[in-house]
Amino acid sequence: MSVIDKVLGKITPPVPEQKRREATQTARGLGSPGDWLSVALDHHDEIRECFAEGRAARSAADRTAAMKRLGRILNPHSLAEEVVLYPALAQCGEKLHAGHAYTEQTTAKMQMAELENIAPSSDAWKDKWEHIEGAVLTHMFEEESSWFIKLREKHEDQAKLTARFKEEFDTCHG
Q1: In a structure prediction context, what are the per-residue pLDDT tens digits for the chain, which is 174 residues long?
Q2: The dihedral sign for the CA sequence 126, 134, 94, 71
Q3: pTM here?
Q4: CA-based, 20 to 30 A from 26: which of 42, 75, 140, 147?
Q5: How far is Cα 23 from Cα 27, in angstroms, rounded to an integer?
């Protein structure tokens, strides 16, 4: 893990698991089956599963497979958020949160690109994986505990958000 990774880890300590679960549960209570919120939360569940799979992987092949599986959900999910949800969040008066969300996701993409250049059999790969996981879980907590709730409360056209979010995800997930 780089010095920067270590410093960032100290500045932004991990959110306790129980607190993350409570935020997810609260957000789930605000969604409806098939709406943008429930779809985004389903993606978050799959992302968490991918991280657990990578953490448990012992062989280089299994780690590589976990990394590729994560990319297949994380990339289209993050792009759909960036194209649909974050602009809507900004339009609802939450520009600082939207900007912060973009920055976090760009950082995660750069970290994933770095991970691809680390031997999957190495301890450095595992360290980077865990660092990325911590950052992404914190980002998802911010969405689930605050940003998505505000978007759900403030945006006037939830049906449009749902249609656009699904459309964008499907286009990128292809």
Answers
A1: 555 555 445 555 678 889 989 999 999 999 999 999 999 999 999 999 999 999 999 999 999 999 999 999 999 999 999 999 999 999 999 999 999 999 999 999 999 999 999 999 999 999 999 999 999 999 999 999 999 999 999 999 999 999 999 999 999 887
A2: positive
A3: 0.90
A4: 75
A5: 6
Closest by CA position to 142, among listed 25, 23, 50: 23
Token reading at 126 = 């595992």
Identify the residue whose tokens are 């300590």.
13
Query: Which residues have CB under 8 Å from 120's CB, separation 6+?
Result: 60, 61, 63, 64, 67
98: Cα separation from own chain's centroid: 14
In angstroms, rounded to a whole number, what is the distance separating the alpha carbons of residues 48 and 46?
5
What is the tens place of the pLDDT at every residue in 60-107? Answer: 999 999 999 999 999 999 999 999 999 999 999 999 999 999 999 999
* Cα distances (Å, whole numbers) of residue 70 to 97, 130, 145, 146: 25, 13, 23, 24
Number of Cβ within 10 Å of residue 36's Cβ equals 28
Burial class from Cβ neighbours inside 10 Å (0-12, 13-18, 19+) for residue 59 reads exposed
